């Protein structure tokens, strides 16, 4: 993770802490490499526009011939697809690495970082290729300069890649100021994750623009044999499944079992992803499109789980199922025509937000590390329903925009988009406030399961007040960042052990947890609106600096804010700067969503067919199509 050279000198003068940003000896070489790569990409782009880069022309022409898409859509799609595979693997490996082993020793000390950097760089390069290779006329495209309009998808892809890649130097600045806060939802982390995630939609848009520009060549490519022919024929399904993967990335903390935000966010995020992704897939890909998207999603996430978990020996990555939601979307298409995209999206949203939510609730008890408890009722049901209906509406509009230009389109009121977004943002905002009951206490008795040097214990917890965990969304012992160990027959770097009530106010664990070495073991209690924790065992960490917390046989400790224990390495800094960063992230997110919405609206802007039968017959319009007003 690099930092601009202008920011290195002040940091050097102040000295460096291993628990903060990275030292100049690592940052400066990385910055130089980044500048050289940027200069190389710019030089290549200029040479190509001057007609002096024949090798790129030959490569783009070869990909165009096999895919049936114009070069400006074909080659960037291939580059983005490969880059996203690399980036998503690096992302989940990196999250698991930090959960299991703690902070980095440097930007190049964690192998996952290489994959993330390469993947995000590839997305940015793909955006540059989409712009540079484009010599076609795009009446509704994005103007670069007079006489040069480029594809909508290409412009959005470049935006996603550049913003995501820019998150790396900003991430180091953030850690230098505030320490290494180990949360997926930090502002610079969201910037990088959001860029890669939305690049899936930008690429899908780019593909559709290419389909519209070369329909005959695309049809011929669809008839070709071999693996390339299969990929061409299934490209929309693959794009839809990749979009669903992108929509699900911010669920990552819940997937690994160490969320630092309210439990209600998980059903909200799953319902939102299902509503947008599956409805768009069914509308654009036709019958079986939602199921096909889920098949691609489960394949990608299943392979990632095997790679990150059993093969690389890191914590297991869990994921939502989405199968019931896909079946509901396919079933809804039998009663409400997907040609009525907005109406179809609303109906699907209602089904997803009720039956689909119930199915995911059950699935959480089958495989998720933190099952959804009855304490989430009714808030999760209400906010999940709102997110699903809002997502279904947005999915209907996304699917409508991605349809071929001659496909039927349902007209929609102009307020559909703002109303849908208002519902979604309201659900997210209502779930945001967090509190902590710092007046709660716990008397913990540890029973030794195995002795030194690898000491493990079970715990009996007496709460004060006794009813503190009566409406808990989770109440567990969490051990992490200790490396790897064998617990309960499994090799893992993280352990989440639920507690069970044995009598009023008294809870007990049955699975031992580690209290030695670098392990951090804590007691976590979350209710619908609060998150609190207390340390059971923490090693001394001079780099922060922080004293150790001993796991004595019996102790009484007060709960503190959950974040204070989980983000032990976050060392404060200016509150005003921190709030400013989150405000800037919020503004960036709104601008990002506005850019995507405007891009989809431009893509959806197709010629209106004549309204009277005589003119339609004369011009060969066999079926009427309503105009689009959203």
Describe the oligomeric state of these chains in a short phrase.
single chain
Put simply, the count of helices is 20
Residue windows where pLDDT falls under 50 for at least 5 positions: 1-16, 614-630
What's the gyration radius in Å? 26 Å
Give the helix level as a range of percent: 55-70%
N-to-C CA distance: 41 Å
How would you classify the helix and strand content by structural class? Answer: alpha+beta
Largest sheet: 6 strands, antiparallel
- Count of structural domains: 3
Q: What is the residue-mean pLDDT, rounded to a whole number?
A: 88
Shape: globular
Notable characteristics:
single chain, 630 residues, alpha+beta, Immunoglobulin-like, six-stranded antiparallel beta sheet, 13 strands, 13% strand, globular, disordered N terminus
Structure description:
There is one protein chain. The chain is an alpha+beta fold. The chain has three domains: 1-233, no CATH class; 235-412, no CATH class; 441-566, Immunoglobulin-like. It contains 20 helices and 13 strands. It is globular, with a radius of gyration of 26 Å. Residues 1-16 and 614-630 have low confidence and may be disordered.
TL;DR?
This protein has 630 residues and is an alpha+beta fold.
How would you summarize the topology of this molecule?
Elements: H1 8-14, H2 24-49, H3 54-67, H4 71-101, H5 111-132, E1 142-145, E2 148-150, H6 152-178, H7 187-213, H8 215-222, H9 226-233, H10 235-247, H11 252-256, H12 265-285, H13 289-311, H14 323-332, H15 341-366, H16 379-402, H17 416-430, E3 441-450, E4 456-464, E5 472-487, E6 490-498, E7 500-503, E8 506-508, E9 513-514, E10 520-527, E11 531-537, E12 554-558, E13 560-561, H18 562-566, H19 575-603, H20 613-619
Antiparallel strand pairs: 1-2, 3-4, 3-12, 4-8, 4-9, 5-6, 5-10, 7-8, 10-11, 11-13
Helix pairs in contact: 2-5, 3-4, 4-5, 4-7, 5-6, 6-7, 6-19, 7-10, 7-19, 10-12, 10-13, 12-13, 12-14, 12-15, 12-16, 13-14, 14-15, 15-16, 16-17, 16-19
């Amino acid at each position: 993770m690099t930092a601009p050279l202008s920011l290195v000198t002040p940091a050097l003068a102040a000295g460096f802490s291993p628990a903060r940003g990275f030292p100049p000896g690592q940052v400066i070489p990385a910055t130089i490499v980044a500048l050289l790569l940027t200069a190389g990409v710019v030089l290549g782009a200029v040479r190509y526009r001057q007609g002096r880069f024949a090798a790129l022309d030959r490569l783009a022409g070869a990909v165009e011939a096999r895919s049936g898409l114009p070069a400006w859509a074909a080659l960037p799609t291939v580059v983005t697809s490969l880059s996203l595979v690399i980036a998503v693997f690096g992302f989940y490996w990196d999250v698991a690495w930090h959960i299991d082993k703690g902070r980095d020793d440097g930007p190049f000390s964690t192998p996952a970082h290489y994959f993330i950097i390469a993947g995000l760089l590839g997305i940015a390069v793909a955006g540059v290729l989409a712009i540079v290779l484009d010599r076609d006329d795009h009446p509704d495209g994005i103007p670069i300069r007079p006489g040069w309009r480029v594809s909508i998808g290409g412009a959005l892809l470049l935006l996603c890649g550049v913003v995501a890649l820019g998150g790396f130097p900003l991430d180091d600045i953030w850690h230098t100021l505030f320490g290494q806060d180990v949360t997926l939802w930090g502002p610079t982390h969201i910037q990088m994750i959001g860029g890669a995630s939305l690049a899936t939609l930008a690429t899908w848009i780019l593909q559709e623009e290419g389909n519209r520009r070369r329909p005959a060549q695309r049809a011929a490519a669809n008839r070709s044999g071999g693996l390339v022919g299969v990929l061409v024929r299934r490209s929309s399904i693959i794009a839809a499944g990749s979009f669903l993967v992108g929509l699900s990335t911010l669920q990552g903390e819940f997937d690994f079992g160490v969320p630092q935000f309210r439990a209600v966010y998980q059903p909200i995020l799953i319902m939102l992803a299902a509503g947008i992704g599956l409805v768009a897939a069914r509308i654009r890909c036709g019958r079986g499109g939602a199921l096909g998207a889920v098949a691609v999603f489960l394949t990608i996430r299943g392979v990632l789980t095997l790679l990150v978990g059993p093969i690389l020996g890191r914590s297991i990555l869990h994921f939502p199922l989405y199968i019931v939601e896909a079946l509901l979307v396919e079933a809804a298409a039998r009663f409400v025509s997907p040609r009525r995209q907005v109406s179809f999206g609303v109906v699907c949203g209602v089904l997803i937000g009720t039956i689909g939510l119930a199915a995911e609730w059950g699935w959480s008890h089958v495989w998720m590390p933190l099952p959804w408890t009855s304490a989430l009722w009714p808030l999760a049901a209400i906010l999940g329903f709102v997110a699903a209906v809002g997502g279904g509406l947005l999915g209907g509009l996304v699917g409508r925009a991605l349809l071929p230009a001659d496909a039927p389109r349902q007209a929609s009121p102009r307020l559909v988009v703002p109303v849908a977004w208002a519902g979604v943002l309201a659900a997210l905002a209502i779930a945001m406030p967090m509190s902590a009951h710092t007046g709660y206490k716990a008397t913990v008795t540890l029973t030794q399961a195995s002795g030194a040097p690898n000491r493990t214990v079970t715990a009996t917890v007496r709460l004060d007040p006794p009813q503190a965990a009566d409406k808990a969304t989770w109440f567990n012992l969490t051990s992490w960042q200790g490396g790897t160990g064998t617990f309960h027959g499994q090799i893992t770097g993280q352990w989440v052990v639920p507690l069970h009530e044995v009598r009023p106010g008294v809870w007990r664990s049955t699975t031992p947890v580690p209290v030695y070495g670098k392990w951090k073991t804590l007691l976590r209690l979350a209710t619908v609106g609060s998150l609190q924790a207390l340390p059971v065992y923490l090693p001394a960490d001079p780099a922060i600096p922080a004293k150790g917390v001993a796991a004595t046989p019996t102790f009484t400790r007060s709960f503190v804010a959950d974040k204070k224990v989980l983000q032990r390495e976050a060392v404060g800094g200016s509150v005003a700067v921190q709030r400013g960063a989150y405000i800037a992230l919020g503004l960036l997110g709104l601008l990002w969503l506005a850019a995507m919405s405007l891009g989809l609206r431009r893509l959806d802007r197709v010629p209106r067919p004549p309204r009277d039968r005589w003119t339609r017959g004369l011009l060969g319009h066999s079926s009427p199509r309503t105009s689009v007003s959203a």
